[in-house]
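=== RUN LOG ===
request id: a7f3
mode: sequence -> structure
chains: 1
length: 623
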Amino acid sequence: MEYLKRSATCGELRATDAGKSVVLNGWVHRKREHGPITFLNLRDRYGVTQVVVEADAAAALKAAAGELKYEYCVAVKGTVRARPDTMVNPDMATGAVELVAEELQILTRCDTLPFMVDEKSDAKEDLRLKYRYLDLRSFSMQDKIRLRHEVAFAVREHLVGKGFYEIETPTFIRSTPEGARDYLVPSRLYPGKFYALPQSPQLYKQILMVAGMDKYFQLARCYRDEDARGDRQPEFTQIDIEMSFVKRDDVLELVEGMMGHVFQKTLGVELPAKFRRIAYDESIELYGSDKPDLRFAMEMKDVGEFATRSGFQAFKDALAEGAARQAAAKSKGITQEGGAVKALVVPGKADYSRKQIEELEAAAKIYRAKGMAWMKVNAEGKLEGGASKFFAGETAPAGLEAELVAYLGAKPGDLILMVADSKRRVACVSLGAVRSKLGKDLGFCDPKKFEFAWIVDFPMFEYNEEEEKWDTAHHMFTMPQEKYHPTLESDPGAVKGDLYDLVMNGFELASGSIRIHDPELQKRIFSIVGFDPAEAERKFGFLTEAFKYGPPPHGGIAPGLDRLVMLMAGETSIKEVIAFPKNSFAVSPMDESPNEVDAKQLEELSIRILEAPDGAKTVEIRK
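=== RESULT ===
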């Protein structure tokens, strides 16, 4: 029998539709029986409509309604009826009407559900991922997938309006070093050779600039074979953007406008026309992070000068050791940081227990802090408890206590936390982790508040102490800021790159840079990081060859679509905004990938799986 095809969705009927004959298709979301009357909530992507099977309905209709269970897929034909004023449901968009059923077809039946399809599933993650098609029926997931679609559309709308071309770059590419491991695809036609799945379209989008495309973007699928942990996904989506004849401000202004358009169009949120700009060094000093959460203040301060005047020997030793390291590096011509003592004031939390302070200290130790000192400001504005004896009282230098309290802006009832280390970055980052934990613990991280900032002036190089060499902090195609060009080789540690990150609410949303377009400058960068010219030619030959033919100045950026939508949706995991994500072990419980394949498929690829006596498996490639 041909099914009743819908003439309306479950979310569109209103009081003005009363008296109309319509057909709805959807899933049984709720079922209630009040004596001889049956009430159904019928659901589809667009909403929910109440369906009524009256007491005097035909026997066949009542029998069909009696058979219904949750998530049966059905078609209902009936007449729209306005509900009495006292029975209007203000929580439903269709709450002013109901559909009086005249005919009901069961299109498909549903087995016993592994979990209820509701507003938001409370099932465990792996169960949700195994039955993702059920999880996606929930109102919460439907809304987040809708938001993702609207964000992607708004991005395209804005960039196309600014003259950008959407251009697809290859999915099968040459393997190039980009930080993470490549996913490799064996070639059947060329045994022993492999394609790689792109970690990003970086080289191709630069070649598009050489090709004169001027303004490019795509919602690019990227693949990184990283160790399974946290919220990583082996495949993710970037809003990949590249522009010719631009400087840093041009890229930043474009993204500010795009974000403003996206948030206004999808959430009705007005963003500032310009985002705050913070130098990398300042961000580390104030917040202990290059992706600070600016929804709350609690800025860190350097108290090294007070520490040297105090009787706290551990702090003094950290500063002395840092100074010695810095001097030793300087004698080798290497710019390196010294030590630091950083402090953080927690407003009104002098009542924190020792256990609570130890939990904060544990957060600092994750980032290599050796410990965390604390003091409390009492009702008289004096320091007490913890490390206060080194800064206050008869054994401390006169006036040190008052000076420190005033410098920190601490008030009675405040808690002061301090971390010292011989490496300035360790002190900053470990106390920054404490700041981040406090922001969450104290309820300062409102998910409906969006605080953007640009982090700029990143170091171009990082010194690798283990290998005693310089590495690039970002990638080897980043333009060093022009004022450092004369001193690239003589003082790499001082060089700032033309790099920029967009951060929001403690997350990095995008990373980009102005690129090197001068082949000679590119050779200098390769040389500084010890990248052999022959290896550079082997790895990046197609890019360096293209750059012989008049490349334009260019730059770009790549906001992460998954993370952007996650934050807009008020979630903390990108799995919540991806239709079919992998779990934390890079496995899909739904289709059980990755999986073994037939021996015939492997034979065609000249591959053989070898299994050792202990069960370990290796791959043999036959050329």
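=== NOTES ===
Residues 139-161 form the longest helix (23 residues).
The chain has 16 helices and 24 strands.
=== END ===
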